[in-house]
Amino acid sequence: MSNQVPTGGASTTAKDEEIANKKLPPGVVLDKDGKPCRVCTSAASWRAMTKKAAASSAAAAGAAAAATTAAASSSNSTSTTAAPTSTPPDDCPPDVEALGRSTWTFLHSLTAAYPTTATPEQQAEMRSFLNLFSRLYPCWVCADDFRAWMNEPGGRNQPRLAGRAEFGHWMCEAHNAVNRKLGKKEFDCRFWEERWRTGWKDGRCD
Questions:
Q1: CATH number of the domain bearing residue 142
Q2: Which residue, 22, 18, 44, 27, is CA-closest to 139?
């Protein structure tokens, strides 16, 4: 995926053009309007982009001013980013990882609350929700991937909504598809209900 921002058009601003002419750090995803997408990007990549932008602004300010600004920027970055792997405070906008964790918690909880046997109306409502979700999810790249996975040829990934057991297993498969893409460990879907509905049999959740 390209990190270059499209230029031109009536909505293009000087700041947009400035971003377009600079190579963005790896991992920064652009929104469909060509601007960096916060909820599509990890916190680490977002910080790298903002630090780079701050450094570029300081360098353009003139020799003396640039030296002073660079020193202050260096001092500030030392005190505020001493632990680059730490997560942002809870009152910051979510990055793609925080959004993903919260979303999977919601989706698995949705399957846990689904009826043991769903009526045709309940199935239709859930199918409608999943279709809308795959279009409205804030990270557009993630939304496109989820929609593409559901609509793979042959219909093998179409939502299975007859009842809780098969819907929960289907959601687990959807989550594992994302885990594989991200190089993460897959979850054993035989245990989805203990993880998301009943709690583990060893009593650790009681």
A1: 1.20.120.310
A2: 27
The amino acid at 12: T
28 within 8 A of 36, measured Cβ to Cβ: yes
Q: Helix, strand or coil for residue 36?
A: strand
Contact indicator for 99, 39 with CB cutoff of 8 Å: yes
202 domain-assigned: no
List pLDDT tens digits, range 50-89.
666 666 665 555 544 554 454 444 444 444 443 445 667 8
Least confident of 6-15, 23-32, 112-121: 6-15
In a domain, 126, yes or no: yes
The structural domain count of the chain equals 1
Asked whether residue 106 is assigned to any structural domain, the reply reads yes
pTM of the model: 0.67
Q: Which domain holds residue 160?
A: 97-197
